[in-house]
Automatic annotation (TrEMBL):
Entry GO CC: cytosol
Swiss-Prot/TrEMBL keywords: Oxidoreductase
Official protein name in the record: Alkene reductase
Cofactor(s) needed for function: FMN
Family classification: Belongs to the NADH:flavin oxidoreductase/NADH oxidase family.
UniProt key word Transferase: no
InterPro entries: Aldolase_TIM, OxRdtase_FMN_N, Oye-like
Organism name: Sphingobium algorifonticola
UniProt domain NADH:flavin oxidoreductase/NADH oxidase N-terminal: residue ranges: 5-344
A Pfam family reported for this protein in Swiss-Prot or TrEMBL: Oxidored_FMN
Gene Ontology molecular functions: FMN binding; oxidoreductase activity, acting on the CH-CH group of donors, NAD or NADP as acceptor
Length: 368
C-alpha cells in the first residue's frame, strides 16, 4: 500500500509539520545525576530531527515529581540552559521539539525524596516496581528495582503547588527554546492518577464524579495556557491502560470528557496511546478513539504498535492526523527515510534503553 500520506504536511494548532511522523516521548535517562540535560542528549535529538515533530522525553516539573535516575527536569536555570543546547541542535537540524511536562505522583520512590513518602490523589500504591537510584560505588549496568509504596493523600496545598509547578515549567520551556509543550496525562502518572476511578478515591472537589476527577487536569491546562498559546500545547492520555495499577470504570466516557475539555481550551492536539496490537501495552478490548474524535475538534496523534503501513492507513482513514513512534526511534535515527524507502528497521538493544551513555543511544547507524 502507499505510504504517501505519512509524508504530507499537517497543522496541529499553531504547529506546522512537514510530515506526519512524530517522535514519541522516550525516557532514556541520559541527563546528569542532577537531572540536567547533556550535550549527548542534544546529539540524540538532532539525529532524529527530520520527523514532523519531536516530543521530548518526560521532563519533571518539580523535584517532588521526579522518580527516575538521570531523567531530565525543567525546574531550575541549569536545566533550562541544558535544554537550550538540545533545542538549538534540533532547530539547526531543521526540526521542531516540544517539552513533555511530567510529574510522577505516587510512582516516585522515597529513595528520590530523602526518605519522604510520595504523594498521590489517594493512599493507594502503584502496582509493580521501578528503578531505584544507583547506590554509591555501584557501576554495574543495571539499576536496582524496588516496589512502589503507598503515597500520602495530597492536600489542597499540595495540589496548588503541582498546578503552579506546571505553569513555571511551561515558562521555563519557552526560555529553553521549545516550540511548545505536551502535558503528560498518561501512563499512570499524577494527572492520570486523578483522572481514573481506580486510583482516585477522594471525597473532595477532586474526586468522585468525573467532572471532579477532571479538575486537576483543567487547572493544569489553564496554568500552562496562561504562559503558552493553546495552539502550541498538546495533551497525552491513555484512558484504557491498566499498567501500574491503573483502571477506569468507563474509559470511553473519560476520553470523551477529556476531548471536550481540550476543545474548550483550544489545544493543538490530543496524543492518544491506544495500541492496535498488544506489545509494550495491551490492545484495549473497547477502543475509545471514536469517542475522543467525536468530542474533540482538534488534531489527534495516535500511538501504539504502528508500522509504516498501518500508520498510513490510519491517516488515510481519518482515524488520526499524525502517528507517533516510540521504540522504533531508539535504533533508527533515520526512521523517516526507512519508512519512505520501505527499508528494514534496526532492532534496539534494550539493555541500554534506560542506562549508560553513548552506547545504545547515539551510536545507532543510519542506513548505508
Amino acid at each position: 500500500m502507499s505510504r504517501s500520506s505519512l509524508f504530507t504536511p499537517v497543522e496541529l494548532g499553531a504547529l506546522r509539520l512537514s510530515n506526519r511522523i512524530v517522535m514519541a516521548p522516550l525516557t532514556r535517562a541520559r541527563a546528569d545525576v542532577n537531572h540536567v540535560p547533556t550535550a549527548m542528549m542534544a546529539e540524540y535529538y538532532a539525529q532524529r530531527a527530520d520527523c514532523g515533530l519531536i516530543i521530548s522525553e518526560a521532563t519533571a516539573v518539580d523535584p517532588q515529581g521526579m522518580g527516575w535516575y538521570r531523567a531530565p527536569g525543567i525546574w531550575n536555570e541549569d536545566m533550562v540552559t541544558g535544554w537550550r543546547v538540545v533545542t538549538d541542535a534540533v532547530h539547526q537540524s531543521g526540526g521542531q521539539i516540544l517539552a513533555q511536562l511530567w510529574h510522577m505522583g505516587r510512582l516516585v520512590l522515597p529513595d528520590y525524596l530523602d526518605g519522604r513518602l510520595p504523594m498521590g490523589p489517594s493512599p493507594i500504591a502503584g502496582e509493580g516496581e521501578t528503578f531505584a537510584p544507583r547506590p554509591a560505588g555501584d557501576d554495574s549496568l543495571f539499576l536496582p528495582m524496588k516496589p512502589y509504596v503507598v503515597p500520602r493523600e495530597m492536600t489542597q496545598d499540595d495540589i496548588d503547588k503541582v498546578v503552579s509547578a506546571y505553569g513555571r515549567a511551561a515558562a521555563n520551556a519557552l526560555s529553553a527554546g521549545f516550540d511548545g509543550v505536551e502535558i503528560h496525562g498518561a501512563n499512570g502518572y499524577i494527572i492520570d492518577q486523578f483522572l481514573q476511578s481506580k486510583t482516585n478515591h477522594r471525597t473532595d472537589n477532586y474526586g468522585g464524579p468525573l467532572g471532579n476527577r477532571l479538575r486537576l487536569l483543567s487547572e493544569i491546562v489553564a496554568a500552562v495556557t496562561e504562559v503558552i498559546e493553546p495552539g502550541r500545547v498538546g495533551l497525552r492520555i491513555s484512558p484504557t491502560s491498566e499498567r501500574k495499577g491503573m483502571g477506569d470504570e468507563d474509559p470511553g466516557t473519560l476520553a470523551q470528557a477529556i476531548g471536550e475539555l481540550c476543545s474548550t481550551f483550544g489545544l493543538a492536539y490530543v496524543h492518544l496511546i491506544e495500541p492496535i496490537a498488544s506489545g509494550f501495552m495491551e490492545k484495549p478490548a473497547n477502543p475509545v478513539m471514536e469517542r475522543l474524535r467525536a468530542s474533540y475538534d482538534g488534531a489527534v496523534i495516535q500511538n501504539g504498535s504502528f508500522d509504516g503501513d498501518t500508520a498510513a492507513a490510519f491517516i488515510d482513514g481519518k482515524q488520526a492526523d499524525a502517528i507517533s513512534f516510540g521504540r522504533p526511534y531508539i535504533a533508527n535515527p533515520d526512521l523517516v527515510r526507512r519508512f519512505a524507502d520501505e527499508l528494514p528497521l534496526a532492532t534496539p538493544n534494550f539493555d541500554y534503553a534506560y542506562v549508560g551513555d553513548e552506547t545504545g543511544y547515539t551510536d545507532y547507524p543510519t542506513w548505508r
